[in-house]
Write a structure and sequence with these properties.
With 169 residues, the chain is an alpha+beta fold. The protein has two helices and seven strands; from the N terminus they run βαββββββα.
Amino acid sequence: MASAIPTSTSITESSVISASLSNVWHLIKLEEFHHFWSRLSSSEREKGTSPETDVVRWTFKDGTVYDVKQEEHSILPSLTFLEIPKAIDHYITYSIIDANPALTYSSVISTIRLYAVTTGPQEGSTFVQWSAHFSSDADADLGLVGVIEDARFKRKEALADLANVLTSK
């Protein structure tokens, strides 16, 4: 019997949000996701983790719980009084370190990047890119909807939720 060749699986979804980069950026904090993502009932910083570790518990409305660890977060570089700031990256990278029920794959690491739209008809808007890199055991054909397609759907839904929250203000 032939076995499947393990491969790395990645997805990227994106959207242009009709809101300034600073308004979008304020919501792209792990503990703020419940303010825009309609699937989440709460997103709370976990107590008892070390000061160097940022872990947030995402509780979904269907009862699923993810403990999400912030791996990277762009920050404003230290500048002296006379320096002019260069373009500043706006991104957050996180991984799921625990899940209930357990994930059907070993790992996933996700990054959300924001870019200001600086010209054209959507000038003043924000381009949002949300990527995920799954371990090779994430089966794209598992069950009725594969892990990858499920993640793609949820990211599209969350980006639409983000746009709705920001444009309804």
